[in-house]
């Protein structure tokens, strides 16, 4: 079985490289938190900073890793179907898929932690350059190498949990069904997503309730509201994003631009790709806009009541809270499109054979990136606005006081650029190939 695991990884390296890059990013962020934990021996405040950083990065990591794992499995479903036709049992197929996920996760996490360990010393003074943390010359830096195996296991664990459903589906799906369609539509919500959504909604409600009628000092916990709300939205992302995408794109005429028509239908049909691309951008926008909005609101509250508290986000705090999620979201959004490049090549060939012009397909790639970014941004806006409204109501301020989307739009624009590049490159590459040859190639 292990021979099949490694040979298939070698033959489909282009598909697995995306998941590997996500694992590298997770390993780097987890390694940085581990280094802060180890450095806490000489600087006690580091431990709480490391825990806070992990809490904010963990949610983004789980969303991005699970999306990358499921998308990778979805892109490989044809291979798994061929295995079953070659008399490989469904249970063995699922075991091989899980083993591949574990191997890629561990290798990526190892590379990420090694890069972090080598760069921790020069990065530390840059990250902690805010005046509040000065001086740091006396801090004894420790890369925390003994903690790194825990990071590897954590990344592998999230990969396995995130790809479990896809691995089981790879073994249970009829081979003939898979060979007829590359991406089957999903129907309804799984019970696991429903339970997870209910639990996160309950946790959000408990946190929101605790803010009402309390001392203003307790409002510091409000920064976790965008985190919980974004996590709740991630659990129902396939259904919500699909409905949201269909709703707002229907406002644009489908008969005026052929490129828009093609882009909209590709985005709606490729549910696995769409969800994997939009989820990271939504999480990044929701966290950044939500936290900066709450910081602005709390600053207004502090000034009005004449308190001595400080709710302004300095550079170091911003990097520790949002640096990890933004990095993960950027990598996750880009690699999700890159991993589907083979499918895009075939789609472009089919469209050219159907009479589509090259300039129309290039424009469609741009519109598709715009659709993904806009859908994720709208969902992220809902997260930021909802969290801000709860806190504003708790302090008896007008709803949406201090609401700011500017910082979050930076994430959306960056995500759009990355997705645009990842969409255009395979499209332009496919346009240089003969459609008949592409359609004749069998895996």
From TrEMBL:
Membrane topology, record value: Multi-pass membrane protein
Keywords, alphabetical: Cell membrane, Membrane, Transmembrane, Transmembrane helix
Protein name (Swiss-Prot/TrEMBL): ABC transporter permease
Domain of life: Bacteria
GO cellular component, one term: plasma membrane
Protein localization: Cell membrane
Segments traversing the membrane: 12-37, 49-73, 94-127, 147-167, 188-208, 228-252, 273-298, 318-339, 360-387, 399-425
Location of the ABC3 transporter permease C-terminal domain: 326-435
Keyword Membrane: yes
InterPro entries, alphabetized: ABC3_permease_C
């Amino acid at each position: 079985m292990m021979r099949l695991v490694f040979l298939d990884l070698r033959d489909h390296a282009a598909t697995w490289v995306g998941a590997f890059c996500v694992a590298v990013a997770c390993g780097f962020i987890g390694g940085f938190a581990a280094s802060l934990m180890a450095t806490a021996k000489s600087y006690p405040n580091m431990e709480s900073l490391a825990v806070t950083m992990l809490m904010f990065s963990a949610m983004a990591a789980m969303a991005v890793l699970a999306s990358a794992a499921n998308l990778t499995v979805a892109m490989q479903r044809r291979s798994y179907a061929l295995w079953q036709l070659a008399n490989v049992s469904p249970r063995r197929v699922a075991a091989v898929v899980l083993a591949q996920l574990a191997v890629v996760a561990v290798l990526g996490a190892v590379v990420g932690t090694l890069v972090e360990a080598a760069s921790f010393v020069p990065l530390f003074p840059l990250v902690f350059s805010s005046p509040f943390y000065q001086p740091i010359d006396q801090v004894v830096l420790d890369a925390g190498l003994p903690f790194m195996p825990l990071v590897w296991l954590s990344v592998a664990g999230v990969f396995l949990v995130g790809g479990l459903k896809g691995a089981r589906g790879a073994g249970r799906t009829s081979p003939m069904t898979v060979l007829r369609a590359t991406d089957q539509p999903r129907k309804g919500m799984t019970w696991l997503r429903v339970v997870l959504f209910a639990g996160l909604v309950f946790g959000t409600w408990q946190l929101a309730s605790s803010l009402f009628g309390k001392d203003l000092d307790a409002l510091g916990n409000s920064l976790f509201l965008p985190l919980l709300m974004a996590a709740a939205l991630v659990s129902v992302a396939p259904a919500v994003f699909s409905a949201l995408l269909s709703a707002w794109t229907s406002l644009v005429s489908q008969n005026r631009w052929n490129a828009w028509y093609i882009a909209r239908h590709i985005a709606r049909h490729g549910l696995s790709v769409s969800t994997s691309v939009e989820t990271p951008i939504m999480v990044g926008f929701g966290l950044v806009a939500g936290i900066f909005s709450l910081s602005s609101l709390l600053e207004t509250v502090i000034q009005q009541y004449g308190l001595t508290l400080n709710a302004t986000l300095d550079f170091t705090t911003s990097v520790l809270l949002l640096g990890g999620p933004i990095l993960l979201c950027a990598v996750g959004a880009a690699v999700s499109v890159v991993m589907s490049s083979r499918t895009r090549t075939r789609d472009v060939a089919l469209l050219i054979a159907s009479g589509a012009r090259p300039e129309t397909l290039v424009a469609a790639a741009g519109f598709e990136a715009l659709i993904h970014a806009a859908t994720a941004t709208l969902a992220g806006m809902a997260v930021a606005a909802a969290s801000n409204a709860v806190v504003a109501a708790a302090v008896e301020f007008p709803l949406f006081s201090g609401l700011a989307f500017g910082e979050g739009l930076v994430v959306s624009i960056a995500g759009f650029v990355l997705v645009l590049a990842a969409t255009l490159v395979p499209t332009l590459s496919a346009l240089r190939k003969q459609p008949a040859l592409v359609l004749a190639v069998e895996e």
